[in-house]
# Entry
Amino acid sequence: GIQVEQSPPDLILQEGANSTLRCNFSDSVNNLQWFHQNPWGQLINLFYIPSGTKQNGRLSATTVATERYSLLYISSSQTTDSGVYFCAAARGSYIPTFGRGTSLIVHP
Amino acid sequence: DAGVIQSPRHEVTEMGQEVTLRCKPISGHNSLFWYRQTMMRGLELLIYFNNNVPIDDSGMPEDRFSAKMPNASFSTLKIQPSEPRDSAVYFCASSSEIAYEQYFGPGTRLTVT
# Structure
């Protein structure tokens, strides 16, 4: 199946800073999702982005399918952005494979 | 839409007891997934269903675990007998098709003492 790697594994920011999270995948995909797991454990859908760029407030994501990576941008980070960010990729009719996540801590 | 619904949200039980976790997927979704999350092993896929049929249960850790989906709006994950190492957060997720966008429920935090 697809291999999914996320980087960095851990990230510590000061409130107001910008950051970029990366998700690399080993094969072409037709499904790429970004999730945020908040400190209460809820897994929240951020983006469904098999290709192209999307923006939602301070967050945006870009997937370059031909080069097999996706980026999640967080601008003007806030303490509520803390948590773990997961990407999940799927190819064809196979189930999505999750990366191990990037743990983000935003200090006030 | 109410999203994926799971119950109970928290379960504390003694070793050896039977535990049943419940999930109601998003209406109209054909695929349902059960995951387990622990600090040590991260997020693991246990089993998934498509059109109420179990497709792959290779992630189910032992015969003590079983899952059913009697209809399109309900699924259960049962552990019998439960053991302390089963303590984890169990998530249910659904999607319109197997490879499409998944939506997660709030999870059930299971503690086996």
In short: Chain B touches chain A at residues 33, 42-43, 45, 48, 56, 89, 91, 93, 97-104, 106-107, 109 (CB under 8 Å). The mean pLDDT of chain B is 95. DSSP finds no helices and eleven strands in chain B.
